[in-house]
Fold this sequence. Notes:
The chain is of the alpha+beta class. Helices cover 61% and strands 17% of the residues. The chain contains twelve helices and 13 strands. It has helices spanning 24-79, 81-86, 89-99, 156-207, 222-323, 327-367, 375-385, 387-391, 411-429, 466-469, 489-500, 529-536; strands at residues 13-14, 20-21, 105-112, 117-122, 132-141, 144-154, 371-374, 395-400, 406-409, 436-447, 450-459, 504-510, 514-522. A hairpin with a 2-residue loop joins strand 5 and strand 6 (144-154). The longest helix has 102 residues, at 222-323.
Amino acid sequence: MSNQSPAIKGVDVQDQDGGLRPSKRKASLQTFLVIVVFLSIATPAVITGGLLIRENYQRTIAQDSQAAAGSYADLLQAGMTMPLWNVAPSLGEPLLDTVKIDPSVLSVIVQGADGETFLLYEKENLEPREESIEMVRQISFEGEKLGSVALRYSLKSARQRAAADSQLLLTIIIFQLIFSLGVVSYFLRQRVIKPLVALERAAVGIAGGDLKTAIPQLQADEFGGLSRQLEIMRGSLEQSFTTLEDRVNERTAELVELNGELQGTLDKLQQAQGNLVQSEKLAALGALVAGVAHELNTPLGNGLTVASSLYDATRNFTREMQAGITRAALDQYIADMEEGTHLVVASLERASELVSGFKQVAVDRTSAQQREFNLAEMLNETRMTLSPMFKHTPYQVRIDVPERVVLNSFPGPLGQVVTNLLNNALIHGFDGRDQGEIWISAEQVNILAEPGVRIVISDDGNGIPPENLGRIFDPFFTTKLGEGGNGLGMHIVHNIVTGVLGGTIQVNSALGEGTEFLLTIPLLAPVSPIEEEGKGD
């Protein structure tokens, strides 16, 4: 027995070379765990680091710059008291030189009490919109206001230092995250992924039918417990499979024996079906012979009667000639001979036509050869062969088929289909009815872009019960079991239409409203197995 089983989602599967292909679910699990751990570490670190970087940046720009500028402003405030008191700018220039050494000092303006500039410094190449802060200090001595000092201090250098410090902090945070991720990934792979991979490989072997697969012995943790349970499952499966194989072998032997018996029964049924089909064909041939005898009886009987009358008239004419014949008697004899011979010729021609028609029908029914034929003529010939069945009944068969419909198909099988449907209507459709009509009509249609014809055979009879409508084409299904029906007529119809004629057949019916059969067949029939065998021979 086969030990193959479908791959289980999340378990490694074997490729064509027998190797294992990694499970997408395993990779997804590892990635998922790494992402979860990384986010649990990275999220607090990024938030904390971001706040720290922001705080350091703001402190470096605001507080450090404010403190530096304030220190310079306080220094100038204290140092410019004596120069302003003595009104000696030269005394303040050394202090000013000391302050302007810092490149962040953009300008210093010292004004007297009257608002006039006492000392002035402005940095060269000063950018017009350089960001800066301004400090102003009032200068006084012993309660008397001497003037003021205003200092502009650049924030550019402070921002550069803040950016450098922030970059350093960011580098430290990234390094910490990478280190943490590496450590977590290492231990995650050692303690989770590797045991999981080992268990998956064992599961692949078991799923593939190899119940001898060794289950890895893992540490005494959750995976170790799973490993032990998997080993217990493997042992149980191995024992169950051994028992199951024995049972399957026994059942297989029984099924082989039973199959032989069923095959023999099937052969007998097929032989019986063939015999019944042959009986059905012989019955149709018997109806054909009865039709021939009945239809030929009328013209041949008329011809025989007229020929006998002409024979008697000739004998009388001979006797009269010996006794002497008159002109009137001669004219009468000639007129009788002309009329009689005309009736004999007409009767013989009618008989010849009937023989030709019946001969063609017989050839078509027995040979099942494909040929070109007119549908209306074929249907009329078929109706003629069935005339004995309808002659002494109140039922009528009406044909309304265009003369232009010509098929290159199998007239014999098609005639058998029509015969079976008419016979079915006569036996079942009109059972217990004192009148009824069957209509046969046809029209040309397209079947999958190919020319075809739809033949409709309908009656106004009893109809088919709904519970039987889906079974009428089944072999051996009949409602007249034991009354002469064998249940093969409609089965033969279905096989001929769908097989030899290459078409389809549908049935519509309702109780009390009659039955309608729709036959759709191509104008050019497909090559049948009989034709192929004939060509091969």
